[in-house]
């Protein structure tokens, strides 16, 4: 209870204080609300004032910018006006660089005005027009000065072509001033050139000048040896470069030394009187050099250096002087700043003389070879077994140099070995075209040029020689196709030509291989692979001619009425004529091929054709079913003519007494000769003689004819009698 009383007492004391605190909190809340309302009011008023201030600021700023722009425009207009006045004043005083510079400033002022998008202003259009007029006026004055300082005097009428078209052409340059003991362009010229550069018109002027210079002076001096360059000084005119056409001499082309001398005189004079002027970071000579050098170098290469390339490898050493002259020429151009590069196409061309020599040599060789191949084939030369290809004596390669002991040892080892015949690998006597002999000499000479040459040069020359022979293989049979079929003599010569080439191609590569650079020395240098093709080509050509002759023989014999009913006079005359024509054709061929074909080929060819004729005659006689005694006699007479005159067509040699041997050897070359002789015997023989020659299948008749063929002959020659029947029973 005491505790409760104490608590109540304390609560009664605290209650008034609690009531006072609550009142205070209400007052504080009321004040806070009043402060918040006041704050919102102040903020609203401040924002309104700031907005007004900002708007005022923007208006003032725009006005300031507009005033600033007007001030700058006025400044540019002032600058333009001043620049135009200064330019006009400088132009009147012939201070062209100042005039051009002031115009550039005026142009920049106009450009600045355009950048402010005020191009619609009538004033801006007027300013642009005034600037254009002043520029054109300056360019006109500069062009007028250029024409007085650089004058071309070209002929009013030109010749159609040639050096005379450039006679009396002159280039007049103003007198140069002397500075440091060297001529330099005059201040007026320098001023004109620099002003043109500032105006952007210098490139066009120099480009036009370079075109005229190339066309009327530089190129003609390279192309025509008869054009001489003159340099003179004329009081009141200046320095004159002129061209004069002299009487044309024997020299069709100028030497590189002559060309370089003339060109340097022109370019040095231009440099001292016109081009030794700095334009920006480069000399005017460099600008001209960029415009002309490519065409000048091409012209020098195609119209001078090409013709100076040696045609023989022995002259290559002397060409070093041309290379040195080219180096000096280019060095002089670099010193005058016409050239910037260290190495140009011109110098590269001169230094690559070995490649150009090989290319030129190859072209010349192919042209010469084609000319030989398309020349007449009937001009022939005699080739004997002793004939040798004229090969040069080449020094032995280092790998083949043998010591004395090695040579002695080799001789001892070879002492007892078997030796080839002296006639081994020798061509038989025959005739070949003179052009083919010359073609082989051309190939040998070209291979000689390859010996000692650079690898690339040697490769080009070697494969050019291969191309020569390939060209022969492709061109000659086509170009001479009709004549090879029409003329037996040419067919025989072409056969020999191919065999001659094939013969020498066997060893040609071996002779040169060791003296050529790699890879030629390692086995590439060979022509052996071409040998079978040439042999086949020669054989095909001659066989085609033999086929033509065979066809003609058969055609002639077809007019003999199959050798039947020869008791009729007309039939006998026709048969006799056919036989005579065959003999005549063979004799003609024998004469045409005499001393042309090798003896062995001659005898085989004539034997083949004679065999064709008698084979055809044998076949026609064997087809006869009835041969009267009179027919048999006529047949015997005709066949006997062939037996007597046939061997006489074998005349391979011009000396008649040496041909008898080959006429006696007819059976070796005419396969059916013995058969034909047996047939002739049978045509005159009686039944008993025929039976005796049969000799139970062991006689000479049995060797040439079968039993059925002999029986057929007996039935055709003899009437049906008991004796004939008895004879037929013995032919078994």
UniProtKB/TrEMBL annotation:
Residue intervals of the Centromere/kinetochore protein zw10 middle domain: 142-373
The protein, known as: ZW10 protein
Gene3D superfamilies: 1.10.357.150
Subcellular location, record wording: Chromosome, Centromere, Kinetochore; Cytoplasm
Primary location class: nucleus
Domain named Centromere/kinetochore protein zw10 C-terminal: residues: 426-555
Family: Belongs to the ZW10 family.
UniProt KW keywords: Cell cycle, Cell division, Centromere, Chromosome, Cytoplasm, Kinetochore, Mitosis
Origin: domain of life: Eukaryota
Segments forming domain ZW10 C-terminal helical: 577-731
InterPro entries in the cross-refs: Zw10/DSL1_C_sf, ZW10_C, ZW10_C_2, Zw10_middle, Zw10_N
Domain Centromere/kinetochore protein zw10 N-terminal, residue spans: 1-84
């Amino acid at each position: 209870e005491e505790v409760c009383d104490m608590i109540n007492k304390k609560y009664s004391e605290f209650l008034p204080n609690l009531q006072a605190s609550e009142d205070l909190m209400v007052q504080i809340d009321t004040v806070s609300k009043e402060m918040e309302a006041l704050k919102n009011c102040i903020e609203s008023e401040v924002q309104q004032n700031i907005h007004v201030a900002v708007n005022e600021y923007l208006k003032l700023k725009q006005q300031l910018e507009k005033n600033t722009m007007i001030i700058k425009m006025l400044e540019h207009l002032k600058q333009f006006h001043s620049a135009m006045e200064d330019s006009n004043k400088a132009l009147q005083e012939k201070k062209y660089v100042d005039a051009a510079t002031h115009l550039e400033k005026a142009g920049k002022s106009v450009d600045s005005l355009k950048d402010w998008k005020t191009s619609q202003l009538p004033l801006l259009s007027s300013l642009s027009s005034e600037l254009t007029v002043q520029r054109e006026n300056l360019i006109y004055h500069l062009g007028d000065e250029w024409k007085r300082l650089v004058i071309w005097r070209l002929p009013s009428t030109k010749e159609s072509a040639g050096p005379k078209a450039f006679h009396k052409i002159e280039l007049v340059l103003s007198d140069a001033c002397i500075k440091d003991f060297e001529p330099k362009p005059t201040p007026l010229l320098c001023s004109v050139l620099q002003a043109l550069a500032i105006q952007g018109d210098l490139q066009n002027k120099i480009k036009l000048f370079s075109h005229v210079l190339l066309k009327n002076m530089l190129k003609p001096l390279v192309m025509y040896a008869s054009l001489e360059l003159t340099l003179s000084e004329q009081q009141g005119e200046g320095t004159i470069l002129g061209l004069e056409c002299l009487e044309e001499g024997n020299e069709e082309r100028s030497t590189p030394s002559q060309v370089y001398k003339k060109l340097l005189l022109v370019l040095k004079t231009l440099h001292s009187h016109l081009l030794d002027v700095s334009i920006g970071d480069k000399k005017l000579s460099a600008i001209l050099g960029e415009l002309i050098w490519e065409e000048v170098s091409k012209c020098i290469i195609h119209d001078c250096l090409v013709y100076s390339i040696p045609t023989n490898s022995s002259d290559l050493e002397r060409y070093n002087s041309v290379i040195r002259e080219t180096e000096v020429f280019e060095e002089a151009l670099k010193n005058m700043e016409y050239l910037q590069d260290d190495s140009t196409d011109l110098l590269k061309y001169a230094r690559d003389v070995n490649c150009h020599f090989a290319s030129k040599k190859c072209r010349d060789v192919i042209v010469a070879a084609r000319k030989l191949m398309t020349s007449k084939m009937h001009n022939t030369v005699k080739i004997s077994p002793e004939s040798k290809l004229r090969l040069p004596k080449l020094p032995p390669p280092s790998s083949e140099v043998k010591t004395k002991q090695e040579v002695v040892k080799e001789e001892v080892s070879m002492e007892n070995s078997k030796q080839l015949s002296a006639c081994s690998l020798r061509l038989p006597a025959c005739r070949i075209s003179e052009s083919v002999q010359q073609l082989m000499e051309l190939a040998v000479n070209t291979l000689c040029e390859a010996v000692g040459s650079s690898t690339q040069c040697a490769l080009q020359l070697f494969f050019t020689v291969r191309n020569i022979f390939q060209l022969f293989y492709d061109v000659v049979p086509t170009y001479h196709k009709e004549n090879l079929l029409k003329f037996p003599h040419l067919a025989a010569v072409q056969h020999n030509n191919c065999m001659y080439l094939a013969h020498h191609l066997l060893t040609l590569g071996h002779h040169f291989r060791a003296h050529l650079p790699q890879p030629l020395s390692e086995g590439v240098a060979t022509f052996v692979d071409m040998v079978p093709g040439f042999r086949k080509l020669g054989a095909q050509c001659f066989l085609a001619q033999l086929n033509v002759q065979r066809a003609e023989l058969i055609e002639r014999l077809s007019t003999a009425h199959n050798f039947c009913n020869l008791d009729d006079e007309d039939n006998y005359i026709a048969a006799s004529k056919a036989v005579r024509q065959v003999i005549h054709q063979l004799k003609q061929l024998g004469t045409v091929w005499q001393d042309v074909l090798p003896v062995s080929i001659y005898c085989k060819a004539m034997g083949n054709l004679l065999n064709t004729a008698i084979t055809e005659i044998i076949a026609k006689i064997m087809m006869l079913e009835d041969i009267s005694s009179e027919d048999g006699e006529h047949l015997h007479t005709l066949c006997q003519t062939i037996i007597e005159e046939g061997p006489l067509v074998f005349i391979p040699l011009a000396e008649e007494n040496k041909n008898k041997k080959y006429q006696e050897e007819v059976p070796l070359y005419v396969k059916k000769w013995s058969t034909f002789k047996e047939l002739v015997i049978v045509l005159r023989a009686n039944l008993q003689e025929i039976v005796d020659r049969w000799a139970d299948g062991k006689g000479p008749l049995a060797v040439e004819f079968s039993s059925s063929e002999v029986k057929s002959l007996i039935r055709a020659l003899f009437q049906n009698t008991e004796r004939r029947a008895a004879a037929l029973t013995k032919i078994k």
